[in-house]
Amino acid sequence: MEVLLAFMIGTLYASGIYMILRRSLVKLIIGIILIGNGANLLIFLLGRIAKGSPPIIPGDSKVFIEAYSDPLPQALILTAIVISFGLQSFAIILVKRAHKVVKTDDLDEMNATDEFS
Amino acid sequence: MKTIILRTASNYMLPLLLVFSVFILLRGHYLPGGGFVGGLIASIAFVLHAFANGLGNTKNLIRIHPGFLMPVGLGLSFLSGLSPMLGVGKPFMTGIWYPEKIAVIGGLGSALFFDVGVYLVVVGVTLTIIFTISEST
Amino acid sequence: MIEQLLIYPLLLQMALAIILMFAWNNTSTQKFISISGSTLNLALAVYLLMYVWQNGTQTVQAGNWEAPFGITFVADTFSATLVLLTAIAGLAVSSFSSGSVIPPRLKFGYFPIFHFLLLGLNGAFLTGDIFNLYVWFEIIIITSFVLLTIGGEKAQLEGAVKYFTLNILASVIFLTAIAVLYGLTGSLNMADLAAQVAAVENRTLVQVNALLFLVGFGIKAAVFPLYFWLPASYHTPPSAVSSIFGGLLTKVGVYALIRVFTLIFELDNLLENVLLVIAVLTLFSGAIGAIVQNNIRKIFSYLVICHIGYMIAGLGMMTEVAIAGAVFYLIHDIIVKTNLFMVSGVIYKLKANHNIKKLGDIYADFPKMSLLFVIPLFSLVGIPPLSGFWPKLSLIGAGWDTENYVVIGSILFASFVTLFVIVKLWGEVFWKNGEKLPELRNFPYFKTLTSVQKVQMVAPIVFLGLVSLYIGFAAENIQQLASRIAFELLDNQEYIDAVLNSAKK
């Protein structure tokens, strides 16, 4: 399971970076989304996957006796997902507006702000 | 997508989904669910309604601008986080609970109000985003 | 209640943002709330710094969860100082925006977003939890995207695409670094991490992780190979927005670098060398970029990059004097850079142009205002006794002690280039007989503004000018503050004790 996830994360990062390096605006956003998902899965993987052992303590003990699955990564991922939801929706609107105003999808032609004046 | 089937179904689905979203919101403290998921379900209900009946009708149905829910929800969450500081002198965001259980809602505490605030913010933000995207086409 | 003093700035900014959202369409009410709220915030921040100065590091455990498990808010002297600087810059920019930003832009929720940005900045400075730091960073970048794009002009949108892409990439790298760190140590509390990271056996992975943090924060701090988003975007929004960006946003990256590399990771030889090389290259590339540009705000953007190099150099040398120099420079830089972009805003309102080749005559037309502009411009250069001089002295001294002569050379080079650029700017913009610029119709020239707006635009420049004069002439006090910060940063035991033992007190 871990090995499979590791390969998946690697693929997500690689394809995300590839997409960011493309020149199209839409592919840029797809790349950002893919990398973000890769990072979320990475947190999940590095939080140690333990199946079927919820972090619940019996009422009379103070500490965990058996190995348990860490609940924190899931909270972190949820936070990261919520944040990326906001960022991505902003990105989509931004790209749409930029496309409307600049009238091109090609990042190489978006160089007005870098031009020497 | 103005088919009669979807339109009729969405009229029944809207209240059903809204009730379900409130259910998810309330069970959220110890079970899967909570304000964020509940808010998303509620906004999906409105989005479905907008698919079937057009954006204008949904807006008329909601009456207020969904963006208005954002400060309301934020304010509610903020005050619930502030309440332990003002009430019992504990640090910010400490959960304070009413000692007895209440029917339907279950435990009543500052965390519930925080979640209700999150619910409102999520509904407000999601609907604002989706309405903006679909209007600007 | 007093023990929770350190989160009051956060709560105040949050409350302000919420109240301002309720008054969405009423811009005059918003201006009033924003300015008075920022004044209150300034008072709070001053009190916080005094309190921390006297009573040592303060902590609040949010939600009353004990330290390594919950989110901790920590105010040591460094954090409290930066909160104070944020409050000063926030008040100035709040007033400046009231005067200069045109009403159609204010209608899109400018002020609520602005206060959310200040909330994010305060949060990033005060948090003691690395994931929480990520969340504050996200709040900062989301709000800064909105401020950057309000108005929707072509240049703004193009700049925003670049700003957006690289900053999101930085966030993802930061998140990846947090994931690896959590996998290595199982903790997110920075004070706890300090002990946990030292105990990890796999040193290579720790080093790689430290480099991931360096890249993530480096993009935000705009250091040498990662700064290209900055000059592409900082000259596009209204100058009020530029001034808060130029003053504070890159400094959050610097703050995070200083915090992470003094508290969590031990700097080894490799990292020190990497930091010093980055610092030297940043100094050179920023300085050379500033020479060739003609747009005032682009010049200032490159100077922002150039001067980040000083702080990175101080961090890279890692002696107490060097860190004190870096912190002093940080204090000076936030005030001066905020002021400079506001000056560029006033110049734009006077002449409706940003190009220094076309500008001119400002000294002849507005002599008093030009004399006012001298303060930030020459504080930046660091002509003694103005504020930029003293930190450079510390940095050069530290470079001498650690035998980093290349660093000393590049610090001197960057200072001379800054001097050259500012003198060129002074000659071109203030003294030269400029060509006759066409009068634009519908442009809100400075002379057409109401007197309240004029005061709102000029008063913050005077205010920040006085602050930088204070930094220059009362350098002893600031040096004392910076030395204490450097001492606390290098001997981080007080921070760790304050966080981990506060529950047991």
TrEMBL record, chain A:
Keyword Transport: no
Transmembrane segments: 6-21, 28-50, 75-95
Topology of the protein relative to the lipid bilayer: Multi-pass membrane protein
A Pfam family this chain is assigned to: Oxidored_q2
A single Gene Ontology CC term: plasma membrane
The keyword Nucleotide-binding appears for this protein: no
Localization terms from the record: Cell membrane
Keywords noted in UniProt: Cell membrane, Membrane, Transmembrane, Transmembrane helix
UniProt cross-references to NCBIfam families, sorted A to Z: PRK09094.1, PRK12659.1
PANTHER family, alphabetized: ANTIPORTER SUBUNIT MNHC2-RELATED (PTHR34583:SF2)
UniProt record similarity statement: Belongs to the CPA3 antiporters (TC 2.A.63) subunit C family.
Protein name, per record: Multisubunit sodium/proton antiporter, MrpC subunit
TrEMBL record, chain B:
Keyword entries, A-Z: Cell membrane, Membrane, Transmembrane, Transmembrane helix
Superkingdom, taxonomy of origin: Bacteria
GO cellular component: plasma membrane
Ranges that cross the membrane: 12-30, 36-56, 68-88, 108-133
Domain Na+/H+ antiporter MnhB subunit-related protein: 5-128
Main location: membrane
Similarity remark: Belongs to the CPA3 antiporters (TC 2.A.63) subunit B family.
Pfam families cross-referenced by the UniProt entry: MnhB (PF04039)
Organism encoding this protein: Salinimicrobium catena
PANTHER family documented for this protein: NA(+)/H(+) ANTIPORTER SUBUNIT B (PTHR33932), NA(+)_H(+) ANTIPORTER SUBUNIT B (PTHR33932:SF4)
Protein name stated in the entry: Multisubunit sodium/proton antiporter, MrpB subunit
Annotated membrane topology: Multi-pass membrane protein
Compartments where located: Cell membrane
Automatic annotation (TrEMBL), chain C:
Membrane topology: Multi-pass membrane protein
Cellular component annotations (GO), alphabetically ordered: plasma membrane
One GO MF term: NADH dehydrogenase (ubiquinone) activity
Pfam family, one: Proton_antipo_M
Protein name, UniProt field: Multisubunit sodium/proton antiporter, MrpD subunit
Species of origin: Salinimicrobium catena
Domain NADH:quinone oxidoreductase/Mrp antiporter transmembrane: 129-418
Family classification: Belongs to the CPA3 antiporters (TC 2.A.63) subunit D family.
Keyword tags: Cell membrane, Membrane, Transmembrane, Transmembrane helix
